[in-house]
Specification:
Length: 327
């Protein structure tokens, strides 16, 4: 519309001006056409320690981009102090919501109190924290790690008829998945007196360390007693498989191997007969995470804990499932 056709007379122009000024004072009316402010989210990731983590990061970044969210992403390189620094920096930047996947369970209370004082809500993704005040975070989204440990224990008990001498490759010491998976697994072992963990050491959730620890297990004087490996994630199991092959063993046959995550490389190893079972832990949290974050930013209520649905896969389904595997 041309200006001449809109302002038909000086009186009309005055009326129009008055109406514009008036509407500008009525909340909600003036800003209807104003550009929507981008949601700013600070996300502190654990690191890039495993195939699972890479898939999780990808899911979060892709979903943020799809929704036009200004994502401030920080990689903690598996160090809690880096995560605390990142959260402090998000607070200083005045982001709308902070989300993070804690490297370990403890030590975050002070920085979470700082976020609370600044009025910035916190959403936990994948891993939980231990805090004395539950109001320090709004919601946890992730897996039931205790149940994953139980599923691994049950599968192994079925496979071995309740008889196994187990070498355990533990995740990052002090992390929620390492603590909880061990707990769930041992709950099942308590019902099977002939299933015993004879070796247990951390491989920090990485392939390289999983291999290193397995090499040391295989050099020990009682190495021949090991009949099964329980690895807290696929990457450590894949490292252990390499160590076994280099020692002249047939992984998956000489030693039964079960791990957790269900990444593509684990499916490949199962299809090749080298890994026996992988309990699923879903890393594709992006869509659910940003649903939660958008609700939180809009002041809407969200549940305190949201647990993802997961399955158990073994060699019998590996080859058929592999082509459909998203991560
Ligand atoms: O917290 C999830 C765990 O962390 C995954 O099982 C593992 O692969 C990752 O490093």
């Amino acid at each position: 519309m041309k200006a001449s056709s809109f302002c038909r007379s000086p009186g009309h122009a005055l009326l129009t001006l008055a109406a514009t000024l008036l509407l500008g004072q009525i909340p909600g009316l003036a800003d209807q056409n104003a550009p929507k402010k981008k949601l700013v989210v600070g996300f502190s990731q654990v690191g890039a320690e495993s195939g699972w983590r890479t898939a999780n990061t990808e899911s979060i970044k892709t979903e943020a981009a799809k929704r036009g969210i200004d994502l401030r992403f920080s990689d903690a390189q598996q160090k809690e102090e880096n995560q605390i620094k990142a959260i402090r920096s998000f607070i200083a930047q005045g982001v709308d919501v902070i989300s993070f996947s804690p490297v370990v369970e403890t030590g975050f209370e002070p920085v979470l109190q700082e976020a609370k004082r600044a009025g910035i809500p916190v959403v936990l993704s994948d891993r939980a924290v231990k805090v004395s005040d539950p109001s320090l975070y709004v919601c946890f989204l992730g897996s039931d790690f205790i149940e994953e440990g139980r599923r691994a224990g049950k599968w192994l008990a079925d496979k071995t008829g309740g008889k196994a001498r187990i070498a355990e490759l533990v995740g990052t010491v002090g992390s929620a998945p390492a603590i909880d998976r061990k707990k769930g697994f041992e709950e099942v072992l308590a019902q099977h007196p002939d299933m015993k963990i004879i070796k247990s050491q951390s491989g920090d959730f990485t392939r390289a360390k999983g291999k290193e620890v397995m090499e040391a297990f295989l050099k020990a004087p009682d190495a021949k007693e090991i009949t099964a490996v329980f690895a807290h994630n696929d990457d450590m199991a894949l490292g252990a498989i390499q160590a076994m092959e280099e020692a002249g063993l047939h992984p998956g046959k000489d030693i039964i191997i079960i791990s957790i995550d269900g990444v593509r490389d684990a499916f490949k190893a199962m299809a090749e007969g080298k890994l026996n079972c992988s309990v699923e832990c879903n890393p594709l949290l992006g869509p659910q995470l940003f649903d939660i974050i958008e609700k939180v930013a809009a002041g809407q209520p969200v549940p305190k804990r949201i647990v993802t649905e997961e399955g158990v896969y073994d060699q019998s389904v590996a080859a058929a499932t592999l082509p459909k595997r998203q991560y």
